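Sequence, please.
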């Protein structure tokens, strides 16, 4: 029996200030803790907050030959400009997760798994808008368990300054809520099931 080899190429994209780079960094850090090969490559406009930001993350069981990727296994997009730009870049059979709170023109592809995730609205319900990115990360992990949730929490514990460790339970709750939402809302094409 052959073991499935993980090689997940992802893009996280949205406005600066939405926690896009942090979301990708947490996933990459969790991959490192699990002894996987990782790559995290951020990109953002000169405006930072309010401008567009994205990061490419690769998590693999094998050595990563190049961090430059133009087609992705998964995309997590948090705003309309990012959806417009990256929907076409998801490989057939891949996964597109989008914040349905902020997207007006919905994705149209029928050869990928599409997951509308009301991450921003859910963060408001949980009384902390800053956890929206952790809800979105949970959404990805609910569809593709690339790393263990416990490892992401461990990564958060190592990366967050100790004065913010009181937020760890809320972040864990946000990740778990994202998983629940994604697993209930995924639209999988018939030929991918």
């Amino acid at each position: 029996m052959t073991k499935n080899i993980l090689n997940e190429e992802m893009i996280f994209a949205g406005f600066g200030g939405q926690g896009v780079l942090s979301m990708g960094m947490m996933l990459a850090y969790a991959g490192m803790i699990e002894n996987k090969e990782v790559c995290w490559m951020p990109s953002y406009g000169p405006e930072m907050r309010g401008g567009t930001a994205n990061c490419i993350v690769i998590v693999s069981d094998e050595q990563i030959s190049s961090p430059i990727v133009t087609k992705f296994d998964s995309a997590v997009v948090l705003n309309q400009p990012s959806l417009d730009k990256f929907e076409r870049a998801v490989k057939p059979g891949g996964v597109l997760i989008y914040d349905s709170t902020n997207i007006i023109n919905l994705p149209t592809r029928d050869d990928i798994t599409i997951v509308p995730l009301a991450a921003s609205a859910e963060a408001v319900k949980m009384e902390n808008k800053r956890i929206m990115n952790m809800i979105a990360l949970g959404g990805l992990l609910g569809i593709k368990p690339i790393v263990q949730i416990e490892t992401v929490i461990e990564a958060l514990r190592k990366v967050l300054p100790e004065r913010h460790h009181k937020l760890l339970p809320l972040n864990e709750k946000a990740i778990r809520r994202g998983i629940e939402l994604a697993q209930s809302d995924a639209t999988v094409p018939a030929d991918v099931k």
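The beta strands are 7-15, 37-44, 52-60, 72-77, 90-99, 113-117.
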